[in-house]
Specification:
Layout lengths: L4 H26 L15 H34 L2 H10 L5 H34 L7 H32 L3 H24 L6 E3 L4 H12 L4 E7 L10 E4 L5 E6 H6 L2 H16 L2 H23 L3 H6 L7 H42 L2 H14 L8 H7 L5 H7 L4
Parallel strand pairs: 2-4
Antiparallel strand pairs: 1-2, 3-4
Helix pairs in contact: 1-2, 1-12, 1-14, 2-4, 3-4, 4-5, 4-12, 5-6, 6-10, 7-9, 9-12, 9-13, 10-12, 12-13, 13-15
Length: 411
């Protein structure tokens, strides 16, 4: 390992962004207040409000602990020459650059998964269990990770192998890597609802009745190509509620958590649907997709410039340059930059959420129902009602729920 400019830049950037996130978390905890926001007094009692604050504190402590552990492990592995040692170890099998690269990156991913397991276990069966959210069993938790690992190998390994081959053999490799990754992501978005998501949850057609009728009526009113409405067994793992759209083009589906249906009125659920349709009508999905594709292209261009950079390899103590180690080192180098980009991405996402809320209020003619849905969701999920603005800036993809209710003009 050589303490050169790259070493200093990466260490300082990683440490400073960790400190920034820690500072934001501490500000967020300090912003907790004993007074319930006025617009929530009829929906959240003192006991629930206090519990939501305890939940916020518990998640913050777990997050801080995990971030410290991850940073210490990375720096220790790096300082002890772990990247160079692992590279020499996988090269010893003499399997060629692509297979060797798969071994190298796979070993790091497996190690990362093992090291994060205690935090995942505690998060599910300790923290979430304590606050009444966890409904998962240990068997379900284990099977989820086994399925995720198998999918990672079946889907991720071929893509990684293709990228390794491209950067080793094809001219203007960054461009072809970008095209391949974009095509792969779009294909995955299309097939995931049909082939991947059902591996983890059951999706049953929404039964006939008032809710289904009102949902389809709203979709027709908005000229939204809704193909199917399903109920997902979210209660299998958590008491939290949610809803989401999947699919591209005319293959759009909405999935409602069973817990969401249990806790909300028809008018509120239609408001949630109208909000999601608002994203479609305001072209938020297309805008986000285009920005994501362009950002990925910029990343691949930078990767092409940094490929097999000798100084970067020296900083990490790796003797021989290679495409596969370049991918890993570039990922570490880009981590602070991704944190910066996420600030802009989160701001755009929050703006889109306000616009979708406004659309829902307009098309349903019932902003109160939308506001009540947001209030109930925040109550049921023990959301923090008083987040600090700086924490919101760094971490929130959705505006604080109090601001969303206020923007709807509902008291």
């Amino acid at each position: 390992m050589q303490i050169n400019a790259w070493f200093l830049i990466i260490v300082l950037a990683l440490f400073l962004f960790w400190k920034l996130d820690l500072f934001a978390t501490l500000l967020n905890l300090k912003a907790l207040t004993p007074e319930i926001p006025d617009s929530f007094r009829e929906f959240v009692d003192e006991e629930v409000y206090e519990t939501s604050q305890e939940y916020t504190k518990a998640k913050a402590v777990l997050g801080i602990g995990e971030s410290i552990f991850s940073l210490v492990v990375l720096f220790t592995f790096w300082w002890l020459g772990g990247f160079g040692w692992l590279d020499n170890a996988v090269r010893g099998y003499e399997q060629g650059p692509i297979v060797t690269g798969l071994f190298f990156i796979g070993a790091l991913l497996v190690a990362q998964q093992i090291l994060s397991t205690p935090f995942d276990l505690y998060g599910t069966f300790g923290l979430e269990e304590k606050f009444g959210f966890n409904r998962s069993t240990l068997a379900t938790w284990c099977m989820d990770r086994v399925k995720g690992a198998v999918l990672g190998v079946l889907i991720g390994a071929p893509l990684l192998a293709a990228l390794l081959w491209i950067f080793q053999t094809v001219p203007v490799a960054w461009l072809w890597g970008w095209i391949l990754t974009t095509a792969f992501s779009l294909a995955l978005t299309y097939i995931a609802p049909t082939w991947i998501m059902p591996l983890f949850n059951k999706f049953e057609p929404l039964p006939e009745g008032e809710l289904k009728t009102e949902i389809h009526s709203m979709a027709e009113k908005c000229e939204f190509p809704l193909k199917e409405v399903t109920v997902m067994d979210g209660s299998k793992r958590s008491a939290k509620s949610n809803a989401f759209f999947t699919g591209l083009g005319n293959n759009k589906r909405i999935a409602l958590f069973d817990t969401l249906i249990e806790n909300h009125t028809v008018a509120e659920l239609v408001g949630v649907l109208a909000h999601e349709i608002g994203h479609f009508k305001k072209r938020h999905i297309v805008k986000s997709l285009v920005i994501g594709i362009l950002t990925t292209g910029a990343m691949f261009f930078l990767l092409g410039l940094m490929m097999e950079n000798r100084s970067l390899f020296d900083a990490f103590g790796v003797e021989k340059t290679s495409v596969y180690v370049s991918l890993v080192l570039f990922g570490i180098l880009m981590s602070p930059i991704n944190d910066l980009l996420s600030i802009a991405g989160n701001a755009m996402s929050r703006k889109h959420e306000f616009e979708a809320d406004a659309y829902a209020a307009e098309v349903t003619g019932n902003p109160e129902a939308m506001a009540n849905a947001l209030r109930k969701l925040s109550k049921d999920n023990l959301s923090n009602l008083t987040p600090h603005p700086f924490y919101v800036l760094l971490n929130y993809t959705h505006p604080p729920v109090v601001e969303r209710v206020k923007a709807l003009g509902v008291q």
